Amino acid sequence: MERLYTLIVDIPKQILVVLLVVTGLFAYPALSVRLDSSVDSLLPGNDPERHYYAGVRQVFDSDELGIVGLIADNVYTQEVLHKIKRLAQAIAQVEGVEKVLSLTNAPDPAASSVKQIPLISEIPTTPAALAAVQAKLADQPI
Predict the structure, then answer these.
(1) Which residues sit opposite 124 in a β-bridge?
(2) Which of 22, 78, 85, 86 could form a disulfide with 104 if both were Cys (CB 3.0 to 4.6 A apart)?
(3) pLDDT tens-digit readout, 109-140
(4) C-alpha count within 13 angstroms, C-beta hemisphere, residue 27
(5) pLDDT in tens, 90-112
């Protein structure tokens, strides 16, 4: 080991040049490395999840999609619906967010009008109205 130390001390510039050349030789192939961070490249071609992913991309026109979930014992309460509405509004304010779709602002697919009618136009305040919203959403295919 002492011979190596002596060599380094005796000819430091030549050792440095050799190390730079060796580093360059090993680093050169890294120039052609390309990163593909899409989920599509991670899934096998015949995987059912890949087909599901393709369907999601088709529905949302992009794979740049984020999903935020809210865990609640019962979604059909006034407090939870207000929380969902506040979250959707807050997320919509984040820079770069193009569109936010939530239970409180989603269009009603059953409504047959040119103007999109929200699925829930107002958050219900009575238990009967909350039950009506729950029944309405239970009938929706979405």
Answers:
(1) none
(2) 85
(3) 776 666 777 888 888 888 898 888 888 888 76
(4) 6
(5) 999 998 888 888 888 888 777 66
Task: Please give the Cα distance from 9 to 42 (Å, whole number).
Answer: 49
Q: Report the C-alpha gap between 51 and 57 in whole angstroms.
A: 10
Distance of CA 97 to the CA centre of its chain: 11
Q: Note the Cα 125 to chain centre separation in Å.
A: 33
Contact 57, 63 (CB under 8 A): yes
Task: Calculate the alpha carbon distances from 130 to 19, 22, 111, 127 in Å.
Answer: 72, 71, 19, 5
How many residues does the structure list for the chain? 142
* 0.70 exceeded by pTM: no
Tokens of 103: 């239970």
Identity at 67, one-letter amino acid code: I
- From residue 87, how far is each of 67, 103, 125 by CA, in Å? 12, 11, 19
- Amino acid making up residue 86: R
Give the integer Cα–Cα distance in Å for 76 and 81. Answer: 7
Give the Cα-Cα-Cα angle 35, 62, 92 (nearest 5 degrees).
110
